[in-house]
Amino acid sequence: MAGLAAAFGSGAMTNTIGDIEDADVILITGSNTSENHPVLSAFVKRAVRFGKKELIVVDPRRIKLAGFAGKWLRQNLGTDVAWINGMMHVIIKESLYDRHFVETRTTGFEDLKKNVERYTPEYVEAITGIPAGDLVEAARLYAGAKAASILYCMGITQHTTGTDGVKSLANLAMLCGNLGIRGGGVNPLRGQNNVQGACDMGGLPNVFSGYQKVGDPAVTKKMETAWGMTGLPVKPGLTVTEMVPMAHDGRMKSLYIIGENPLVSDPDLNHAEKSFSHLDFLVVQDIFLTETAKMADVVLPSACFAEKDGTFSNTERRVQRVRKAVSPPGQARPDWEIICDISKRMGYSMSYHCAEDIMEEIAKVTPSYGGITYARIEQEGIHWPCPTREHPGTPVLHEKSFTHGKGVFHAVEYRPPAEVVDEEYPLYLTTGRVIYHYHTGTMTRKTEGLNDRSPECFVEISDTDAGKFDIRDHEVVRIASRRGEISARALISGKAVAGSVFIPFHFAEAAANRLTNAALDPISKIPEYKVCAIRLVKEEV
Amino acid sequence: MTSLTHGNGILIFIPDEWENVLNTQNKITINGRICFFEPGDTILIAARRNNVDIPTLCYLKGAIPTGACRICVVKVQGARSLVASCSTPAASEMVVETESPEVVASRKMTIQLLLSNGNHNCAARLSDGRDWTDFQLRVQQDDGNGALCPAWGDCQLQNLAYRYQVTGDRFAGDEKNFPVEDVNPFIVRDFSRCILCGRCVQACNEIQVNEAIDFGYRGAKTKIVAAGDRALKDSDCVFCGECVQVCPVAALMEKDTRFTCRPWETTGIKTTCSYCGVGCQMFLHVKDNRVVRVTGVEDCPPNFGSLCVKGRFGFHFIHSVERLTTPLIRTESGHFRETSWDEALDLVAQRLTKIIKEYGSDSIGVLTSARITNEENYIANKFARAVLKTNNIDHCARL
Questions:
Q1: How far is CA A148 from each of CA A26, A190, A220, B317, rounded to the nearest angstrom?
Q2: Which residue of A5, A27, A287, A357 has the fewest CB atoms within a 10 Å radius of its CB?
Q3: In chain A, whose CA is at the least distance from the CA of B238?
Q4: Which of A494, B375, B66 is nearest to B383 (CA)?
């Protein structure tokens, strides 16, 4: 999100899901949409099949949507900045960009122009493997659209150059005037039900709810008044990817973890496990005894989404109701009640009658949620920003101006991924999800039917690599990186392209993150899950 | 002064001077009532807009109308025959009757033909147990259940048979001898009960665009097939279940709830899906304090009734026996022991207070969650900042 915030002033999907069908051209990159956001992918597929819209897919795997795309460009792993710069090179050279938009709504164009000058289609082909002719055609297609939508996901962000990749996509969209219009936009697809809400509500080290900056004296004063206390810390805190190494050094003494399973989802798990064991006191509040909860000193049982009231904010910034349908098992309780009780015991009283009371307080202290009430979202959710009770919500962002006035072009240079293949580790590994499972599998793996469809970890490899490394379909192989190794069944698939393999990260017993690289993007602190170097070894019989 | 009923059925009196304005609008007469319609409306949509109920079987919102089932026929003044309202555009000054004797006779005939074709052993009159054919009894045995059709009481064909008082014995039964397919974890397909309305085919191809099923074979042998008449599990099907949600009869049913729970025994609670960030609106169907079934909320953004396999079928974690039910504390021997909330919360508060005193607030970190509610995230943010006095709060958006 840091990339979008730098370009536009706020980091969220600029347009709505329904808007996708209004685009003339849809560019999808780093999102295996039909497996990770199946219902959203239907909007894309309908636009292609029935709206006769053009689809460009740029992805290292031959994902299902590649079959719907008029153009599938296959980039080498970790080379996104290069192909996006290449597209802009073509668009500027052929004067296909939106001059009016660039002149009136943006700054930094000259630097961008100079920067992309050397990203000729031929130069880009050498880095990305995308044939120069294909890149030119894709650039013309995107630039020629009245409205073009960009959809992306973790395939762009989970790199050491993730922020750069996002800034580049923002550059491309601004260059062609695709912001503030229906069917346009730069649209990050959020992978978990309430990632958007967790960010919106101040679940980040540098901002309070509504992205109000930590350390800003006016904000500090406002929150201290609203919360009836003094002494709010003014120094931005640490990200999860910084806290874990500090635990390893003994500088982080305690973690309080709610509904997360970092001991499957963190990169370089072997290191993460050691870090957690160095903690003085670990509290885990969850619905299951996850791999992380098993290491805790205290485990607190919480209610799941079906057992409590509240709201989630979806990927298109729509605040929607969550309603209690059944009672929690045993003594399990909603997360907010547990935290309020601890707070009270620590000398600060937080007392709310129900979730709706909390939303009232949120609306008071959070400008973008100012107009959200349960009554208003009873039937249908509202898109933030929604500053007042009369405001209808904002489906499309940046219509007249950007959050910080003008949109900012960032001249971004291509940098290779942190780890590249060599003789010892000759294959690239990328990780992700399958349609039948979700994240670390703690929820989906409780449904027999989903396990029946997708029972175990696998490594997806191309025919060519299978031949090269003498691996048969369904054979168990060992996959090793510099950080660890796991075993999984080989799945020879047309989705894989020679030179790179794919492993889903749902399966704790063969956790892909034992292999992945914890190298971080310097700004967003997102680990490079999507590229590391590995080798395949036949399992001894 | 003119009067007309509009929209919600309220009688509106129109001053004379407005009449010229109204005359220029799109007006259609349905059952003697002047109704307004929007350009592009079919007769069916115009009728629904004006709260006139025209029954349908094959009509599927969001898909291209096929006019296949002929249930929605209406009489249009001046037309040579009855027209399918789902696929006929509404036109200004059109005069439509939706329940005229010809219309009713046509619908009865259509329903009788549908009932005579295949296994419809429900309580439509004269097709009760005494009249069951050997075939019907045999099919029931295959199902492992001697009772009525699993969709009994929740079947649009049965509803129509009741509504139009149609019996099932007018035409000689035509056996449809298809074995039940249940070799996948989620969906039971029973084509002996299929009426070939084509809604599942449209849902799969035009709504979800998974392109897994289509009409197969020809004429009397017509059947819905996947991948050259293979089992769903061996096709491109990804088990979104959209076909089950739109099936008007018992040809497609959720395996979990077939013969185990009836729709009127459950209460539907509208909520937001807990998986990916799309935020699909869904009903959790609850029976005896348990979620037994999930369906998509139609006519509501962002998903308009669609769900994916996880949202529709992946709800078993809610009632998993592995759920945590009591607070746990690690003992000196390294094992967990169950404890009370009071003891657990006291311990957490004491330890955190002590750590702050000894090492400072920034030696503590809070990981809040992308899966809990906004309200809970807000409380976690307040707890970290106002109580622990640290900004070390993050969640796994990065992971």
A1: 6, 20, 40, 39
A2: A357
A3: A435
A4: B375
Total structural domains within chain A? 3
Q: Are residues A228 and A180 part of one domain?
A: no
- B379: closest chain A residue by CA: A336
Q: Which CATH number does the domain housing residue B59 bear? A: 3.10.20.740
Nearest CB among B233, B284, B355 relative to A325 is that of B284
B313 and B358 in a single domain? The answer is no
The Cα–Cα gap between A452 and B182 comes to 13
Question: Which positions in chain B touch A50 (Cβ < 8 Å)?
Answer: 206
Q: How far is B212 from chain A (nearest CA, A)?
A: 13
Domains in chain B, number? 3
Cβ–Cβ gap A39/B347 under 8 Å: no
Is B164 contained in some domain? no
Q: Note whether A256 contacts B310, CB cutoff 8 Å.
A: no
Give the separation between CA A305 and CA A286, rounded to whole angstroms: 12
Residues of A in contact with B212 (CB under 8 A): none
Chain B residues close to A49, C-beta within 8 Å: 206, 209
CA distance linking residue A220 with residue A215, whole number of Å: 7
Task: Give Rg (Cα) of chain B.
Answer: 28
- Contact state of A345 with B389 under an 8 Å Cβ cutoff: no
Q: Identify the CA nearest to B63 among candidates B232, B185, B208.
A: B208
| CA separation for the pair A251, A237 (Å, rounded) | 14
Closest CA to A37 of B167, B235, B273, B301: B273
Of A40, A208, A238, the CB nearest to B278: A40
Distance CA A127, CA A254 (A): 44
Residue B125 lies in a domain: no
> What ipTM score was computed for the predicted complex, to two decimals?
0.95
Q: Are strands A517-520 and A527-528 parallel, antiparallel or unpaired?
A: antiparallel
Q: Which of A1, A20, A39, A318 best tests the B interface by mutation, with the highest count of B CBs <10 A?
A: A39
The CATH number that applies at residue B291 is 2.20.25.90
Confidence of residue B121 (pLDDT cuts 50, 70, 90): confident
Q: How many angstroms separate the first and last alpha carbons of chain A? A: 47
- Same domain for B268 and B306: yes
In this structure, the number of other CB atoms found within 10 A of the CB of residue B299 comes to 9
Determine, yes or no, domain membership for A392. Answer: no
pLDDT-derived band at B1, boundaries 50, 70, 90? very low
Which three-class secondary structure state does DSSP give residue A255? Answer: strand
Average model confidence (pLDDT) for chain B? Answer: 88
Whether residue B14 lies inside any domain: the answer is no
Nearest CA to CA, how far is B25 from chain A (Å)?
28
Note the pLDDT tens digit of each residue in B155-197. 999 999 989 988 776 666 666 678 889 999 999 999 988 999 9
Is the residue at A442 inside a domain?
yes
Residue B56 maps to a domain: yes
User: Are A29 and A46 in a shared domain?
Assistant: yes
Of A300, A293, A64, A347, nearest to B348 by C-alpha is A300
Tell whether A453 and A533 lie within a shared domain.
yes
- Asked if B316 and B347 sit in the same domain, the reply is no
Decide which of B64, B95, B126 is a domain's last residue. Answer: B95
Instruction: Tell me the C-alpha distance between A153 and A108, whole Å.
Output: 26
| Packing angle of the helix pair A80-93, A109-116 (nearest 10 deg) | 110
For residue B67, the enclosing domain spans 24-95
Contact B382 A350 (CB under 8 A): yes
Mapped onto helix, strand or coil, the DSSP state of residue A370 is: coil
Q: Same domain, yes or no, for A271 and A127?
A: no
Q: Chain B partners of A253 at a C-beta cutoff of 8 Å?
A: 355, 359, 363-364
Residue pLDDT, tens place only, A296-321: 999 999 999 999 999 999 999 999 99
